[in-house]
Structures
1.
Amino acid sequence: MNVAAQMLEARSDERGVDHAALALAIDAMHDVVSATTSCADACLSEPDVADKTECVRACLDAADVATALIKVLSRTGPTVQGTQALLGATAKMLAETSAVAASHGDHDKHCRITAETTSRGQQALASLEAAVAAAES
């Protein structure tokens, strides 16, 4: 059991959202932060750095939004509507980042890894959105 799952199980949670879906999303966002931060740094080291500006910005934005989401998902409370809005915004940010990174993926392995990681993050968020919706009904 990962740390996110252990912490979620160790305390009460007023949201009633499936802890497995929460833990999966938190872990996926940790991966997103790691991949996008590393990708932005790697892009800045490339000889064609001027062509990577969009990727650097998208990666840094995704890392910041994923970090914020990790913090919100790790807390308990009745902020379901706010959480849903943040989930949706983060998913959109990850989709944009995935597309930008994928456009460099043929040449740069770090961009390909980032595109795959942000895509998996989107999938985890979609699962969590379904779990949040189920908890509300």
2.
Amino acid sequence: MKTILQALIDEIDYPFPQGKFENKLLARNLNGEDEVTYEVITSKEFKGAVADCLYSLIEAINFSEADKSINLPDRDVILKKMNAIYASIGETDKCVGEPTVYIGG
């Protein structure tokens, strides 16, 4: 039996504190100790938790641990994946990107 927590951990390819995974699940009203099912793993709540974890990775100032690190090109890939997930579950208000600079009028 695989738990929802373990499924979320498996979706994120970088070391992440377990407590942070648990917080993201709780924020999405998911119990990490419940058994993961097809319905759960394809739900907006679970996908949102994945995107929330990816957002936390992007927010990290500098991340390097156990032969894994996140550099700027990695952040761009993570940002695109995160935004695609948010868009797919209708949370476009959470999509982020590069700042836009307007010149003139």
